[in-house]
Amino acid sequence: MTAAPKTIYLKDYTPTPYAIQHVEMTVKLDAQDTRITTKLSVAPRSNHPSPLVLDGEGLALHGVAIDGKPLFESAYSCKDNKLTIHNPPNAAFSLEISQGCNPSANTALSGLYVSNGIFCTQMEAEGFRRFAFFYDRPDVMATYRVRLEAASELPVLLANGNPVESGKISGSNRHFAVWDDPHPKPTYLFALVGGDLASIHDNFTTSEGRKVALGIYVEKGKENACAWAMESLKASMAWDERRFGRAYDLDVFNIVAVSDFNFGAMENKGLNIFNDKYILARPEIATDSDYLNIERIIAHEYFHNWTGDRITCRDWFQLCLKEGLTVFRDQEFTGDMRSHSVKRIEDVKSLRIRQFPEDQGPLSHPVRPSSYMEINNFYTATVYDKGAELCRMLQTLIGKDTFRKAMDLYFARHDGEAATIEDFLACMADASGRDLSHFARWYQQAGTPIVEVEESHDGKSDTFQIKLTQKTPPTPGQPTKLPQHLPLAYALLDDVGRNVKNGLIELRQESEAFTFDGLPRRPHLSLNRGFSAPIELKENVSTEELLFRMGHDSDSFNRWDAAQKLGMKLKPEKQARIRRIPRERHAAACAMPSSRCLP
Ligand code: SER
Ligand code: ZN
After folding, report:
1. pTM of the prediction?
2. Fewer Cβ atoms within 10 Å of its own Cβ: the N or the C terminal residue of the chain?
3. What pLDDT, on the 0 to 100 scale, is given for residue 580?
């Protein structure tokens, strides 16, 4: 029987008593009994000796040695998914562990497994412990040198980092490959692949002059459907340099696509692994949205190289630090490559369909939860998509140029570290000179704020007033809510949709009024332009006003949103009339531009 899962709390975070700085590893691939030997460079973090307790799940332990001397069995214990070394030395030492796992029996697809004859790994969030004993948590970052050995039936052997050497093992039908990753990384970014794979190759020269060999590996026969993925990769590499000044940092970048993969894709350092549905495309087999998704997901995983890999998360509570930020970055990329308006509309549609119900239902949780029992349950629309909205709001609040400066500061300050949301917000605050302590509440408080709008015009004083009231309904575990800091982009429009005034309202209190003068004529209000805050706007707006917005609002998102609201506003009897249109006439009507399809 396995023990009941324990609740883990953010407030209980403590660093490990030992750092593991470097790993030398040999992996002998075998479907039933893969042997892994690790040589860990361990250093105590303090002078107070304490046991060294490593994670390991379902592993066969074959031996433990310290500084080359095998340990007596009394010096360690291996039970309840932990390997405990009772009295490690209190100065730096080398810990050698020999262990084994069974990849073909791994149907959870977490750790090392076999998919269609290909050995591959998925270590996020806690898969490494099913492969080798280690501190399987993101704040223990080490450099790795990995030697892979396999039979000749697995000719392609890949791991993180740069290739060092490869060759035949004399006297056998086996061969080896050595990979070196000079960038410290946590276990969840470790990856290896062994298989008989087809591949396509290209290269990219970075702005720093590094020539990077690019490879995409797929099951044999699928290599003629990888060209778009390769184009998308090169476009992503160029965009991250242009927009965020981030160049790639290894000599190779490889992607492997397999047909069995739990996540859509995974950002392992230098060796991304994908579900091949997000790699393969040819005009005969793929739709426009398949092409879009491939471009987007390749970009997402590539952008993790800086937001996730070079700077990772201190603990899994900080998951949104890498995921929200990287989703925001891939959204900006797609907008730049295609259309910001269309992208924003698609993202808000998905937020409303997937995240809003989550935020308003029994599974509602903050973007950064304060406790969990199973971290795999927190790969949610809230962490990813609302997390991205928080980054977008920060960019709106401090401006795009300052946001870039804040990101530069974040990379400079935390490169090679495992960081927190507080670290990220401190960079935003320091670069902008703004106090973001109220904004930080977005990370802790779940639920979708509802903002009520009342507008009034005074012809005597030529003033226009907007009164805004915000309320966030209770969510599980959070019965009372505090007001959020909301950036609401606005414009006041004349009768042909020209901006008379525009800017940003920052709503901080539960209720606030904003008055604009010099307006003898009542303007049309365009609020929360570009969906600048992830809220529900409650306005009492007439059909005429919605028609005005659809035709004239200078914000493309609000033009689209007005059409949605008008559709919702249609009286039920009118909807019934539409339903009664005979099938062939309805088809003809619906082929017309959508605004003309309305009765
Ligand atoms: N870390 C992976 C990703 O988001 C798995 O979801 O890219
Ligand atoms: Zn991601």
Report:
1. 0.95
2. N
3. 52
